[in-house]
Design goal:
70% of the residues lie in helices and 0% in strands. It has 149 residues and is an all-alpha fold.
Length: 149
């Protein structure tokens, strides 16, 4: 299951958009924290890299161009690292315990009349993200609350 870097970046962006950012999920899944950090890094790291470059060149001069470039590349790599992690995670299969929970949630949502894709026998995290997003968007909060208590 080898992926190219570009595929992982695209999968990471899609997974970041799909994952529901709900307070109920923060204690169960690291995705919530990674998505929040990645969104923050996408907004702030390019300007931080530019400010760092300008300040270092202004204060230290052109003798420190290699160090300046290295620091800028570090700042620019932070959002890419988050997207790569998310892209890799989205393609991983769910562990057995989480797989059974996925099956249970899927069957409960079907019984409440949600229109879902067919249940997967070996779901990945991206299928879990889509299922949770549908659950939080379509179902009442009272129904989803007991899944996380």
């Amino acid at each position: 299951m080898s992926q190219t870097v570009l595929t992982m970046l695209k999968d990471g962006q899609h997974y970041m958009k799909t994952w529901p950012m709900r307070k109920e999920l923060y204690s169960f899944f690291p995705e919530c924290r990674v998505v929040a950090a990645t969104k923050f890094a996408v907004k702030t790291m390019p300007p931080a890299a530019m400010v760092t470059c300008l300040l270092l060149i202004q204060n230290l001069g052109t003798d420190y161009i290699p160090q300046t470039i290295a620091m800028a590349l570090f700042f620019l790599s932070l959002p890419i690292q988050g997207l790569l992690w998310l892209g890799h995670r989205s393609e991983q299969y769910l562990p057995p315990q989480l797989n059974s929970w996925y099956q249970d949630v899927h069957s409960k949502m079907r019984s409440h009349g949600c229109h879902l894709a067919a249940v997967k026998t070996k779901p990945k995290y991206k299928e879990l993200a889509q299922l949770l997003k549908t659950a939080f968007n379509d179902l009442d909060n009272a129904l989803t609350k007991h899944w996380f208590s």
